[in-house]
Design goal:
The chain has 328 residues and is of the alpha/beta class. A nine-stranded mixed beta sheet has the order 2-1-5-4-3-6-8-7-9, with helices on both faces. Strand 1 and strand 2 form a beta hairpin. The longest helix is centred in the first third of the chain and has 26 residues.
Length: 328
């Protein structure tokens, strides 16, 4: 066999390998999330039976803050989180707010419980949205964000592991990098707790996962953020309008995609230390979810490198005043 035949054979093998890899990437990449009609509605204590239409993230802001709580089978942990969160939000008035609980296809009555809890806080605007099927935490957060009315939008885990009072530290940081509503993100960070009892007492497997993930994240491109996975992140409305429509991953690793999108869009990101404690009842299955996170990171990076999930900066959006009127 001459050298030209070997060269052609090698090129054919290389092309076949690339084609196979691309096919696998397309198959493994999650489908675009399309909300069903019922998922575009909400119920509340004021309207517990009749479903009302959800607004759009692209509407003018109507409140100062939206708090999105993704909840999957959280009937055991939601009441305590609700109590501390609503107490703090009430203490920050006259800042206006809404709470958007996104039931991610729960089977334990989470939505019904959220409605009953909402009735205990008649002065608060608590809205409950039910997804027909479980999407994953990232899918639930994205859905809530796409329908929030706040000038700023926070997502917070339903377990209450992050101290809600630390919202004020995130708020102050947002004031500094986005004083007039410019695109900006502030993330809560547990990085300062690495050597403390809160992390040392975590299970060995969870700590192995944490350090392994941090190593991979440096390779992916978000090594500048010390804690990407903390479920306590604040977005200006302009940032949310650019980032969340472009989000694809509905799984645990969606935080990384949000931060990569922010980096692509040249959106400033501040990292603020917060208090955190581990709460029992986590839905994270260390081994299986670690493999899924690794796969999703590879899918994410490959799609971004190939331009399949490219996102382009949008023209500056008009700012919105507290009364919902558009600025010039």
């Amino acid at each position: 066999m001459d050298s030209s035949a070997l060269l052609y054979g090698a090129l054919a093998l290389f092309a076949a390998t690339l084609g196979t890899a691309y096919t696998v990437l397309v198959i493994w990449s999650p489908e675009t999330i399309h909300a069903k009609p019922s998922e575009k509605t909400y119920r509340s204590a004021r309207s517990p039976s009749k479903r009302l239409p959800l607004p759009s993230l692209h509407d003018p802001a109507a409140v100062d803050l939206t708090v999105v709580i993704p909840a999957y089978n959280e009937s055991a942990r939601l009441p305590a989180m609700f109590a501390t969160t609503l107490a703090h939000l009430e203490a920050t008035r006259p800042r206006t707010y809404e709470v958007l609980v996104v039931d991610d296809g729960s089977s334990d009555g989470t939505a019904a419980l959220a409605l009953s809890l909402a009735a205990e806080y008649p002065a608060s605007d608590v809205r409950v949205v039910v997804l027909e099927h479980n999407l994953g935490k990232g899918g639930a957060v994205r859905h809530g964000m796409l329908h929030g009315r706040g000038r700023r939008l926070l997502f917070a885990d339903a377990d209450g592991a992050s101290r809600v009072e630390d919202l004020e530290a995130l708020w102050t940081a947002m004031d500094e990098i986005s004083p007039d509503g410019q695109p900006a993100v502030v993330v809560g960070s547990r990085a300062h707790l690495v050597k403390t009892e809160a992390v040392v007492k975590r299970s060995f497997l969870r700590n192995v996962l944490m350090y392994g993930l941090h190593t991979i994240l440096r390779l992916v491109g978000v090594g500048h953020i010390r804690d990407t996975q903390c479920g306590f992140k604040l977005f200006s409305r302009a940032a949310a309008q650019r980032i969340f429509p472009a989000q694809h991953l509905p799984t645990w690793i969606f935080d990384v995609e949000l931060l990569l999108l922010a980096k692509q869009l040249r959106t400033p990101v501040a990292e603020v230390p917060i208090e955190w404690h581990e709460v029992s009842g986590s839905k994270l299955h260390v081994f299986a979810d670690s493999l899924q996170m690794l796969r999703d990171l590879l899918i994410l990076r490959a799609n971004l490198l190939l331009g399949r999930w490219a996102v382009r900066p949008l023209a500056p959006a008009p700012t919105s005043s507290k009364d919902g009127t558009k600025g010039s």
